[in-house]
Fold this protein.
Amino acid sequence: MKAQNLSGVWVPICTPFTRGEVDISKLEHNLKIYSQTKLKGYFALGSNGEACMLNEEEKKRVLRTVLRRKERNIEEPLLLPTLLLMRELILPAS
């Protein structure tokens, strides 16, 4: 595997909520905005502290949304919590 240059500005993705529920459409909107900047990449579910407040299903929904966006834009660097990613790959989609 080729080493990647990780230098540059990386930002956390905040998990948006509306009326106490994870708002996937707002998350998708935020990802679109981030992709139009000169940011090097972003972190999901990890550096803002909200991950510990989400239940397993909410974490899966956020993770699936971010990974779908990543599939469409392979050039967009992304960092995810390894444990969450491993569980998502092992557990069947609900």
Observations:
- The first strand starts at residue 10 and ends at 12.
- The beta strands are 10-12, 17-18, 21-22, 41-43, 78-79.
- The mean pLDDT is 76.
